[in-house]
What does this fold into?
Amino acid sequence: MEILNVNSNCPNCGAPIEIDQHAQASICKYCSSVVAVIPRTPSQIEESKTELPILRKVEPELKYQASHRLSAINTQGGHLWITKDEVVFKPHALNMGPLGKRYIRIQDVVGYKKGAFTHMSIFTKSGYKMDIVVWKKDEIINEIEKRRVNHFQSQGLPVPSLQFSDGVSSSSNIAGGTVSAEQLSSNSGCLGVIAAFVISAIAVLCSILC
It folds into this structure.
């Protein structure tokens, strides 16, 4: 894996940060900030006279207690962040690592699937599927869709139809209100952790007994 060493370029603390050449985001190992690579065209790179990525700090508009399902028996705890431009799974400190499969740009979302109980998946045009365990699935889908529609409409572009919508309403008016990052409920957070633990335990038992 080729790494670009960006010296003193964390937009939050200014510390050195290492980024995979093709990564869209990373986590600063010094201040734990999520930083995203600002997309640039070849002409913009030429004008800036540097090919090193330009980074910005990611700040959540909405924040949900969640778990990221890496496999049937392996999940990571943390929060699902939704911003104007992206969907990010921010893991707890003990689960830090590359953000390659935890960061999705809003314009790359092509569908959703609501699974049983608290499971849901977010699909991207690259073929990646983010599997998460979270409460308020309808609300999350509604908030992502509002931002996806706005992204294309603000550029005068047609909004691409969803390629995957199993269990998802075709209407953009999915029920559910917004919850700011500051209003994250500690009760729903605890329930999310309990649900993720129970589901993971069931998956482990099934893998042993089956």
About this structure: The mean pLDDT is 74. The helical segments are 42-48, 137-153, 186-209. The first helix runs from residue 42 to 48.
